[in-house]
Amino acid sequence: MTTRLGNHGVRCKVAVPDWRAAIHAAGELMVASGGCEPSYVAAMEDGVVTYGPYIVIAPGVAIPHARPERGVLAQGTAVVTLAHGVDFGEESNDPVDLIIAFTAHDKESHLQTLQTLVAVLGDEVTLTRIRAATTEEQLDAALRRAETELTA
Question: Where's the PTS EIIA type-2 domain (predicted)?
Fold first, then answer.
């Protein structure tokens, strides 16, 4: 992966009322870091409205993203853990308590990011560390450790 996990920012134990607010929590980090335009955040939400909760890829995990032409400025990820899970409408994987939003410039970087996320999300120990973090520092450390273990 060419960018560090969470390079667009991390937030820990965020209280949100619904899936839209969960997407916006991650989107705000990406906009603030210069990773995307606000239009990209709206496009992530639009994707769920249009295509359903396809971004909920594992129990408790959603990976919102959109097409690069919708406002990507820099490649990367924003990671948000939620204080309480929210439903996206994906019965087999709801409620979601981990949001990993990402931006990618092209199809190749999109696939590369997905490969990294699949490796991270496939490791129960890593997921436990991420979910157990109670501060942004702990969450960032868990993500750095996961990335280090992936490249070892």
Answer: 3-146
